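Long-time lurker, first post.

We've been arguing in lab meeting about whether zinc ion would sit comfortably in this protein at all. Half the group thinks yes, half thinks no, and nobody has a model to point at. So I'm putting the question to the forum: if I give you the sequence and the SMILES, can you give me back a predicted structure of the complex? Inputs are below. Any interpretation is welcome too.
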Amino acid sequence: MSGAPADGDAGATDARELAERLQREALERAAREGIHCLAIPTPFMVGRVNAYLIEDEPLTLVDSGPNSAKALDELEQALAARGHRVEDIELLVITHQHIDHFGLAAILQRRSGAQVAALDEVAPFLAGYGQEAELDDLFAERLMLRHGIPPEVVTVLRAVSAGFRAWGSAVEVTRPLADGSTVELRDRTLRVLHRPGHSPSDTVLVDESRSMMLAADHLIAHISSNPLLARPLGASSETAYDGPRPQALLTYIDSLEKTRAMDLTLVLPGHGRPITDHVALIEERFRLHERRAARMLRLIAAQPRTAHEIALEMWGNVAVTQAYLTLSEVLGHVDLLLRDGTIVEAEREGVVHFTAV
Ligand SMILES: [Zn+2]
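Top reply:
Settle the argument with this. Predicted structure of the protein with zinc ion, as tokens:
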């Protein structure tokens, strides 16, 4: 270790310090408004999940963390640091159908007697979690085979997915929320908005008078929130498969456009740091999707390919270890190209190939 840092390093340090200060100030502002970020551990690649404690009446928790002893232990410690116990929670709001967000909900509900609120459309999924997860896996399996992922890879991924299932747990929604409705607390009103894309059930809570949004995974600063291909809510595996493929990225872009048009000064996401520049972040995401779609168009123009072949060209071995994630990425962008009419899709022997027009 020798020599003075280059100018570029000093600039990078300044930028990082500024970003950290803004992040601290944003969390302090949320805390002054009674909203406290509790980062709960998960076994997933994404790392910790942000639950939010709203110190109001009723005492409210937004998302629970996954169903694990470690998550419960850390949640209890985080609540205790603010002078609360699990038993004090009066309202638990679930933002979407991913197990890192709702896995502990059933245990918290049983111990506290809290009302459990979630978007009305996702309530049957949460209540029937075990069977619903099984249907999701079936849907994913058929989609992967149809798009050229080798059967042995599909088998391994199913086993991995089944192994994670116990981090979720079925929970009864006692207070279904309609899109556009409000949740009234003593000191604030939260507007409930359905913003599907990352998952079919993404729900954000907006405090319009404070220009604040609890966004869960609808918008995350450090990662582009994957629009995962998912079985539509309420569809059996059969009908989900026979119908048109869900267009998760197009749905997601539509949702992001609605959020971009909103006047917000603080967005509190489900993972990572708070967001104070949501318009710039959303525009950056739109540029990323355009670049990716353009790159995929070049690959398809060179020769017709399956979605899995495109994923292999784009990400190499990650397209095998993370086959479903990368398939979702490819199909999302392929949907943009199909919409623009620059490619067409055709099925040969049960596998879909994309060809440039
Ligand atoms: Zn999620």
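For your lab meeting: The longest strand covers residues 35-40. The two ends are 55 Å apart (CA to CA). Whichever side wins, do check it experimentally.
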